[in-house]
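User: We ran a pulldown and think these components assemble together. Before we commit to crystallization trials, I'd like a predicted model of the whole complex to look at. Sequences follow.
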Amino acid sequence: MIEVTIIGSGNIAFHLAKAWHKSEKVKLKNVIGRNQKSLDEFKQFANVSSDFSSIGSTAVCLLAVSDEAIGSVSEQIPQGDYLVLHTSGATNLQAISDKHRRGVFYPFQSFSKNSTFKYAEIPLLLEVGTDKDKELLIQLAESFSQNHQFLDSEQRLKLHLAGTFVNNFANHLFQIGFDLCQANKFSVELLKPLIRETADKIMHINPKEAQTGPAKRNDKDTIEKHLALLPEGKSKEIYKLITSSIQDI
Amino acid sequence: MIEVTIIGSGNIAFHLAKAWHKSEKVKLKNVIGRNQKSLDEFKQFANVSSDFSSIGSTAVCLLAVSDEAIGSVSEQIPQGDYLVLHTSGATNLQAISDKHRRGVFYPFQSFSKNSTFKYAEIPLLLEVGTDKDKELLIQLAESFSQNHQFLDSEQRLKLHLAGTFVNNFANHLFQIGFDLCQANKFSVELLKPLIRETADKIMHINPKEAQTGPAKRNDKDTIEKHLALLPEGKSKEIYKLITSSIQDI
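Assistant: Here's a predicted model for the assembly, 498 residues in total across the polymer chains.
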């Protein structure tokens, strides 16, 4: 049993705690956080505390805090016989205070509290400061997901960038679609089967082959009609730029 | 039984033929198209022909052809006692030759041949030239989907525009993500759980609430690191513009 302490009480912390709570390979000892209200939700999984000195004996201290807080929070963790991991895609391993043995445990997924996940399928990107910790990190990874690999900080950032396009940016386009529906008093439910198919399709077809629409067909008539409907602003700029980007390929 | 003839042999034609082939409310009489090879795939559903004069007796002639072809193909259809429908989101009802009774039967979905759909859930947007045809169109719609409503040509175009953002444009962002993975020798499989969750999440949360990431958090450090990784070009412009659009809200 690997003893684990989680520091942080947000969505990543929640899903890791949930997964490890029922794991036979991990003993979740403590969840440490400042926000007492968020911590309450973790009582079902482990002891909760707001005190770093309660860490005590643990093999792993996992930081599930915001990127900017990794440095300062890791500095506050008392030195001890444990591996300190952060969970950020865009942050170097070296952001963790060098008084600790360091590593990265980055689940490549967008977590919200109420979603359910097949944890075993979430890609997990790993990094260690010293090869001595590699075996421990692999064991911890295998307790969570069968889909894990080692990437260095630079490679992890590149993957995080790809994720930003397909997650944050795609979600923004979904929002523009929702906004257009609401402005025209259509139910946003109309968009959902289309959004679902857009994502489903590329599970088995490359998005390049899946591309359809007026930009792909160079259907200038429809493009003009669409542009005439869009008021001046960011959505219109996005329409023009993505249309031109589709046509570049 | 409503007798239907489909003109066209693309993906929309295929899924309509597939649905109506087993319908108890529709008798699919003919599928008419120019491309003999595509037509072969329709032999399992109905008679196939490349000859417009084979239309004969039918209640509905459904055009599943490209937007630009709606005018010329509908002109070639001999006048008769049937309702002529097109299936386009971005095309006016009036594009159909005025020698016919006219209507629109627009399934708001992105069809590819090998996908499977719950036809009953696909939103269907309807329009008729004369109220006399309304009942026939409703009956035809109900044979395909329980989710249908009437929209005029202008409203339908506005919905088509919203669909372009959430389907064609989102798919292009997925392609940029795939390209970034391939350029860095990551498997594109890494992106799939994230893409699936991005779409799944907004089935029950508004995308505005679902938005996360460096743009939303105004995490300038990560934004700078991402921009440094992107070569000059459309992807970098898209990164800057969508980041700024997320921050506008």
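The beta strands of chain B are 2-7, 26-32, 47-49, 60-63, 83-86, 101-107, 124-128, 148-150. That may be worth checking against your pulldown data before setting up trials.

User: Thanks, that helps.
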